[in-house]
């Protein structure tokens, strides 16, 4: 046996097989015995450790019972009773804590590997936990000291020093590591920090070793140049420092580029501090005349040789060239962008004159001379949207904000606002520091809400900073002022594209001249991505929008962009129903932000024609791409605008609002009304779009009114020239048959015909929808393996096309089908994946579907309490949201089954009645049948087997056959047959044959648990 107590308790057999130990008390007992493995542990110590200050009345007997439970839980664990207590018969070296204590002195690296986290010891063993943690720190220090020569250990030592701020040995190691990395400025900060803390806490000075190390640092720093000692910590760019150090070691000219406020200067200084040899900083921001640049650098370097002193009349550039010619040094030319030509000429002259010179420049655009290597300084890493405190706290942008705003902490309440601030500011360090300053006077939630007006809000920069770094507007103004008018025009027009643009879009929106485009990239105002798209940071974009409005060009630019994007959407729309579906989905996804911004801009401008045209072209993309909520909202807003619009496009928008809203985003009555409005708007217009020709069947399906030809006009589409529409029509006809419980063999044949049609055109939504219907049929007739095969293929297709809203439901359905085959592990894994997706999606319908799936399986496995809890949670979700009534009926049925299994027949009756009312209202045959089968379960539990048999007969009549995937119905039938006999069961079963969907509610209302008269009125929600 192996026992691990360094971290969460682990027990493993010799072959590595884990033994879970259930319950906190059992785990505490194991820990106490393991800490004294091989030795007797007194009963008093064990009782104190397990129960603390509140031991049970018969503590000895309780301890004995607990030991017996432990022996049963881990049979291989040998625990002997001894006169004073108990002894764990185990070599101490089999317990990681004992092995760890021995290895700390022998092999610190191996000791550290054993540590899985802080020990979870009871209060009575707290001293032992403190001892082991102290040993862990000793081992960590020893290992890092040994590894310092071979790798960069600064980050690990920084983290440890933050955890143990008074540990002088740790501070000494950190200072040595920083000095080795060339970061003497930070090393001096570390010494000053521990010197202050030692004085405040203990009134003592640092040790002699630490003081001597400090003196060495001071002597070295004095020889190195004129780098300033920073007064704030350096956060989030250790990887950039390493990368630039490497570049500077192999290239004589490295330029750090990036937009204003991105941290170029601070990064350059940090790199300089960590490089060997003299490093000099020349700040060029104050220089206004390019001719004064050589003198400014000469003054900054303070390099005066006898030659230069004797030749004051010699031009400054010549004197500077002579002064550096024989020196080895790093020269940082900071802020070159406003004198870029002169800076480039100066760098070229000096590099040619001085073989030992290296230059590290910072600029918003490259110097553009031979030998230059560029390093773009990117914004700080951002936390994911919606990140919790732990994940957010690891993001560099968040770390900087917290460092600069000491009063701000990552509480559960504040974290969402902190994440919003960092993401809204693009991770730009200066913007984050300005926000941190503002957080001293504004709650972080208010700050996050007001960043839409960021240029007015972020104005509290350091009084000692350069003027252009004191406000966010000043930072961007500096860049604007350095541009030509064509460059400014391109900036403000491209600001209307939040998703960036490719070259074709730039030419369409801004004209054919691409020189300004190249200039904006060079000046760090546009970023060219690996995908060939040009993007702006949000702060740069916001500034551009302001300038666009000032120039009076907003409407002209909006129309140009709308024209470009509408052409793309219209070109893509028919291809979304063909084999090239994925290619065009990707093209639209790339433009997603731009497309939606264009729709919203049209709505704001009250341009109904354009807004409706966009919604008509994007409706199917929204359906396929998992953007149904946003699509539904945009359709509604476009339709609500005054003014004219193309009548065919308006009909499409009504239809797409219903299609995208049907999964819980709209009330079902709203969906029905939208389909009727679409049908009315389409009257008399050209039905070139297949959805317009499909409107009559959609109205039929949503209203449950089959119409004169029984299939709502779908038959008329069987000869349509569009192969996709023909396949949809066949699928609709089959679905209508299934809804009305008609000839299942014919329906299955039609589904297979539709499947062939969808395969021929390569459309994945149709394939997936048809396959999942075939999976349902296979499961209902008992072909469980066939059901799994169909559902797996359906799920793969849905995943491929990106139908986010339907993925969890498809996974839940596959989980149930896997469970039916006996693959319990596969079912649970599929449910876990569905739940993970539901957490990410956050939609009520998706969350409810996953909980309902878990409840159904828990109930089938006999875990009644868990099923009740999950079913009730499902009802709470759907009662606060709009979901499809079919799903609502299924959820109430499952809740009723769970309450019936728990013995609460009154509550079960109310739930089953609500399920039937809801199902009958939409006349969905399989759902009505499921609700009737639920009522049969209630009758059987109420002691009325004849009524249970009749209701089973009604369910099968409405569905058209028995659903062999419904184990509850099989159980009810067995119980009813046992009570009535075969003949009696068949007689009662046949009484249900005449029940239809429309009479199902009356049929279920008969018997001992029939509804009271008042139950026929709108009941509100039943108990949950």
TrEMBL record:
Alphabetized GO MF terms: ATP hydrolysis activity; DNA binding
Organism: Actinoplanes lobatus
Skewed-composition ranges (Basic and acidic residues): 1007-1024
Family matches, as Pfam families: AAA_22, BTAD, Trans_reg_C
Family: Belongs to the AfsR/DnrI/RedD regulatory family.
Chain residues forming the annotated DNA-binding region: 1-90
Protein name: Putative ATPase/DNA-binding SARP family transcriptional activator
Signal sequence coordinates: none
Gene3D superfamilies attached to this UniProt entry: Tetratricopeptide repeat domain, Winged helix-like DNA-binding domain superfamily/Winged helix DNA-binding domain
OmpR/PhoB-type domain span: 1-90
Region listing for Disordered, in residue ranges: 996-1024
Stored InterPro entries: AAA_22, BTAD, OmpR/PhoB-type_DNA-bd, P-loop_NTPase, Sig_transdc_resp-reg_C-effctor, TPR-like_helical_dom_sf, WH-like_DNA-bd_sf
Keywords: DNA-binding
GO biological process: phosphorelay signal transduction system; regulation of DNA-templated transcription
